[in-house]
Amino acid sequence: KSIYGEKFADENFELKHTEPGLLSMANAGPGTNGSQFFVTTVECAWLDGAHVVFGKVIEGLDVVQKIETYGSRSGATSAPITIDDCG
Q1: In CATH, 1-75 is 3.30.428.10
Q2: Confidence at residue 65, expressed as pLDDT on a 0 to 100 scale
């Protein structure tokens, strides 16, 4: 649950999805941001104006890319993915 309530508005769309490693809000349409986000692994210009970019992976993009190799088009992973330590 977000500190802003169940859903909150988009802040702005100034930053664009121009490279791998960007953190962006997941949503179901305008003003429906919650507590979910995703990390880009390629340039994603089609997301501009729909999902707010709010950060960037500055270390460990190789880990993100390794996790991506376990993904599928359905969203299911081919093996369990566990984060044992972070921060």
Answers
A1: no
A2: 95
